[in-house]
Every structure is written in structure tokens, then in C-alpha cells.
Amino acid sequence: MLKRIRIEHLTLGMYLHEFCGSWMEHPFWRAKFVLKDPKDLARIQATAIHEVWIDTSKGLDVADGVSSMSREEVDAQIDTDFSRLEELPPLVVAPPPPPPPPAPRRGRAPASMQSELAAAASICVESKDVVISMFSEARMGKAIDSVGAQNLVTEISDSVTRNPGALISLARLKTADDYTYMHSVAVCALMVALAKQIGLNEEHTRVAGMAGLLHDLGKAAIPLAVLNKPGKLTDQEFVVVKSHPVHGYEMLREGGGVDDSVLDAVLHHHEKVDGSGYPDKLKGDQISLIAKMAAICDVYDAITSDRPYKRGWDPSESLRRMAEWTNDHFDQRLFQAFVKSIGIYPVGSLVRLASGRIGVVTEQGSKSLTTPKVKVFFSTKSDLRIPPEVVDLADPNTNEKIVAREDPDKWRFPDLNELWSGFAERPW
């Protein structure tokens, strides 16, 4: 049986099933082992992780009277919270007075998912080159090309305006080698979508996008051997990686030409609302709005992306895991707004419908967070592939609904990404 417990109740002899937090927050590259070494226990308790899942069928249980939650109890609470999202009033942040409205730009009208995926692929190709150039300049101690960065943010913002699901989903399909660069692009797009969701004006949306694009620039100062290490980091290597917010802040401050809000997000995107983050252990309202936004967008893209040492999690499963950490990690209302901006079942999520068919989410619904468009392609009743068919769950004539999330690692459909994106291979 799986139980979620506080770190202080973890003891030798327990079977550690999973950390309640992103793998970016601890130096362990694996879980799922019996805790035998007191040094491992001390290292876990020294991390910013507050809770873990243990498997009582494979190791010791908690002592009588110790608080814990079962997997079923946690899932039920998340289901309840997500079901109430549409009942919540929109979170609207009141920024400073907006600047004069900019001149209208072409190419910002709503677009279909299919047409915008093609445009997003081109943006990804261009973006990768721009971000690689920025990191190269930073490594050589040069100021970044702020005009080029701003032009890229504008292109990304326009794409998100036309169809938010396309670029956000496509940028998730990064390789391990592409990760550092395409992660910046993905977080930029996620920041823009979240900014629009909470009602920021165009100028502040641009600033949010720039913060997403530049948030990890400090990784240019981290040795590539550490940054791309395929296995377990040493404690010292983990300390080195955690220095990247300060490096990025100093690089951009010295180079000049970057908004103070962007500098703040670069420095503080790993802070947590409970004060356990880094580098300054800020807490609650001490953390700026844009840094809180960056924290959410950064973690989501990181945990849904493949890394040298770990496969990314399914998008909808990632949101549920983040929901488990919200009280410690993220601003709760901002996280709720983030879920609204990408959907309870983001594009690319593998789901099971009431009919027993399995499909992948291809686009968000216009009416409800629980009624996206799903491309079904497998029957669990016959255990066979079936001709792909797009089912619009918002259609009043359909009896279908999502009844479960499915684990892509269990099914290992080789063409899962192609089914929703239309690309047989990554376009960059």
C-alpha cells in the first residue's frame, strides 16, 4: 500500500517509492529502494523535499498515530479540487497602468491546432538557434542580444495568442541534448499563456515571456559535464547546479537592458511559498508574482520532458503531482490559473474513455476543462489498434467521457507524439 508521509517520519527499513517533488530538488536520481543507509536518510532529510511516498508492502509501515494519506485519499482530494476549478472566479492580477496600446500586428487571429502546429514548428527551429546563441554569448561573458530575445518573445506570444496548445505542446518534445535550450522556449510560452489567463496587459505579458526565456541563462556558467550528467549527481555537483539562478542574475544585471522584474524571476524562480527554496529562502508574499509564475512553468516543463537520466511524466499526471505539492511549493491560486491555461488534460495526455477506447488529447475544449478533443486509436476490449478517430467530448451527441489517465510507459505506443502533433519526428 502506498502512503504519503512527512520526511521527519521516514525511517530506515521503509521502502521509498517516490519523492513528493521535482527531481530537480534533490540529488537522488532514482527512488524505489529500501532505505538502509543512514547517510541516505540524512541526505533526504537535508533536501527541500517535505514529503515522500512509501510502499508498506515492501518495507516498514509508519508507527501508530503518525499522520499519513493513502494514494486513494490523495487522488480523491485532487479530483475534488480540479472539479471545482471552473467554479472559481478568474484570478485577475492588477498590474500597474498599461502603456499606450501598441500598433496592431498581423498574424494574431485565432488559428486551428493543425495550422498553428506547423507555424509553431518553424518558431521552434528559429528559437533553438536564438537561444543557443544567447547561451554562447553568456558563456563568453558577452551581453545577450536583447532585441533578438524580444523579437523571439513576440513571435512566441503571437503563437500562443492564435492557439495556446500548439507551441506549448510541441516544445515539450525536446531531446535530452536540446533540453537546456528548448526548455527556455517552452517556459516562455507557458509564461505567456499564464499571463493571459490572469489578465496581465500586453506589456506585462511580454515581460513574463522574457522572464521565461531567460530564467535558466545562468546554466551557461555550469560545466556541461555536470549539466548533462546522465546519472546521479554528487552533493557538490548538486550545489553547483543550484547556483545557476545567481549566475543568471549577475550575467543579465551586468549586461544591462533587462527589466528588473525579469532579473527578479531569474534569481528567484526556485523559491517556494513555504520558504524552503533557493537562493534566498523567500516565503509567501516575499516572492514576486513573476517569480511565482516562473516557478510553476519551470517545474511543469521540466517534469514533462525527457532528461538523460529520467523519462518525462505524462502531462496530466504531472499536473496531478504538482497539485500534491502546491501548499509547499507554489502559490495555490496561480497554480489553479495555470491548470486553467493548459487544461486538466493537456495536449499529449494519454486517456481512457468510457467506451474502453484509449486516445491522446489533441486540443482543449472550448466549453469545459474536462471535455477536450481526443484522438482514439486503441481498443482495450479487443486489445488492438483501431483506425484513429477524433472525438470531441464537448459534442452534446457523444456519450464518451474521460474515465482514467493512462501511463504511456505501460503502453509504449511508439507513435504517441505523432498521433497528436502530426510530426513523425521532431521538426528541429
Mean pLDDT over the residues: 90
Class of secondary structure makeup = alpha+beta
- How many structural domains can be distinguished in the coordinates? 3
CATH names the topology of the largest domain as Hypothetical protein af1432
Q: How many β-strand stretches? A: 10
Strand content: 5-15%
Low-confidence regions? none
Can you summarize the main beta sheet? 5 strands, antiparallel
User: What's the CATH class label of the largest domain?
Assistant: Mainly Alpha
Distance between the termini: 43 Å
State Rg.
Answer: 21 Å
Structure described in brief:
This protein is 44% helix and 12% strand. Strands 3-2-4-1-5 form a five-stranded antiparallel beta sheet. Strands 9-8-7-6-10 form a five-stranded antiparallel beta sheet.
Could you outline the blueprint of secondary structure elements for this entry?
Blueprint lengths: L1 E5 L8 E5 L13 E2 L3 H8 L5 E5 L13 E2 H13 L29 H27 L6 H17 L1 H7 L8 H19 L4 H13 L9 H4 L7 H7 L2 H12 L4 H9 L20 H16 L10 H15 L2 H11 L7 E4 L3 E7 L9 E7 L4 E9 L9 E4 L2 H4 L4 H6 L7
Antiparallel strand pairs: 1-4, 1-5, 2-3, 2-4, 6-7, 6-10, 7-8, 8-9
Features:
DUF3391; about 45% helix; single chain; 3 domains; alpha+beta; 16 helices; Hypothetical protein af1432; about 10% strand; five-stranded antiparallel beta sheet; about 425 residues; HDIG_dom; HD/PDEase_dom
